[in-house]
Amino acid sequence: MSFGLPIRQISFRDALDKYSMEMSNLTSRLTVFMASDLGVEQETLMGTFQGKTQSVAFHYYPPCHHPDKVIGITPHHDGLGLTLLLHVDDTPGLQVRKNGRWYPLNPLPGAFVINVGDILQILTNGTYKSAEHRVLPDVEKGRATVVMFQNACVAGIVKPLPELGEATYKAIDHVEYVKGNFRALAEGTRFVDGLKIM
Ligand SMILES: O=C(O)CCC(=O)C(=O)O
Ligand SMILES: [Fe+2]
């Protein structure tokens, strides 16, 4: 994917092209493990990610001497398929919520943080849960991350894989899903909750 960058920024463009391809490859490799864990065909899960869009975010969180008054990123769930997060430095800040408690996810050299997004939660019929997370600023040091969001769907539709039994989420056109997800994010709600079949 070219990200529509001007040709003149050749080195950045090349680096981003390469990074984008490597993240697609990593996603494919991860789906192989997930497919075997879920008991579905490798190609089925891999196919939901292959050829789909990616978006990238470059975050920088400056040091902040009033961490009690400021938040880096407010608590949220990622809305797409998988998120591949690279820590550029060793500054902590990312936290994940489990059973109502926040846990730090400190950077490990050479490791990615992989987040399940809401679409993967739907695809796996709720077997994998999208994790709520936030970023707190550090008092002393700035923090940089590169975050790749991998999209996924089944033939243009966001829905549970039929292999995973009776669907517990309604099927929705991918374009409608993305619109609804952005709307919900702005309202501070979760679009995926409205797709749940009670
Ligand atoms: O920068 C981070 O550690 C988290 C970024 C994030 O959660 C996001 O971009 O959705
Ligand atoms: Fe996030």
3D architecture notes:
It comes from Triticum turgidum subsp. durum (Durum wheat). Keywords: Iron, Metal-binding. It holds the Pfam family 2OG-FeII_Oxy. One of its GO terms (molecular function) is metal ion binding. By secondary structure, the protein is an alpha+beta fold. It has one domain: Sandwich (Jelly Rolls). It is built from 5 helices and 10 strands. Strands 1-8-3-6 form a 4-stranded antiparallel beta sheet. A 4-stranded antiparallel beta sheet has the order 2-7-4-5, with no helix packed on it. A hairpin with a 2-residue loop joins strand 4 and strand 5 (101-104). The protein is globular. The model has no long low-confidence stretch (mean pLDDT 94). Bound molecules: 2-oxoglutaric acid and fe (ii) ion (FE2). 2-oxoglutaric acid binds at residues 57, 59, 73, 78, 85, 94, 133, 135, 145, 147.
What topology emerges from the helices and strands here?
Layout: H1 10-38, H2 42-49, E1 54-61, E2 73-76, E3 82-87, E4 94-98, E5 101-104, E6 112-116, H3 118-123, E7 133-135, E8 143-150, E9 157-158, E10 172-173, H4 174-187, H5 191-195
Antiparallel strand pairs: 1-8, 2-7, 3-6, 3-8, 4-5, 4-7, 9-10
Helix pairs in contact: 1-2
The structure holds 2-oxoglutaric acid (AKG) and fe (ii) ion (FE2).
The site of fe (ii) ion has 3 residues, from loops.
